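Supplementary material to the annual report.
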Amino acid sequence: VSEAASLEPGFFERVYRAVSRIPPGRVSSYGEVSRMVNGRASGARTVGWALGALPELRVDEVPWWRVLRADGSLGLGRDPEAAAEQRSRLEAEGLGFDAAGRIDIERFGWP
DNA sequence: GCGTTGACTATTG
DNA sequence: TCAATAGCCAACG
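Predicted assembly:
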């Protein structure tokens, strides 16, 4: 492997990797993913930004819909269409939403 | 090197 | 519960 740098994937790759480790029926928050990637929950914004750059081609590899906000509400607040898709995918995995449209991350959250 | 941007989080009122 | 504010980190121009 001549590409020694590939041993240390960039922030993007690490985020995709961490998100892809989330099993079906479970959800995680940006802060949690940030902690997996950087060891800190402070980089949550960067995680969201990294997923925002997630090309559609990687959608099948990275279950971005399993990443929610810390309070269990869906992200993509500025993208209603994508949020609806996220909700559909989560419902398809058996996750329940409350009246406020939020998931009980304490119950479905992936530690 | 600096300022801006962003799918965030925690705190305060 | 909702709204607004401050703090943090990484990439881009």
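The CA atoms of residues 65 and 88 of chain A lie 9 Å apart.
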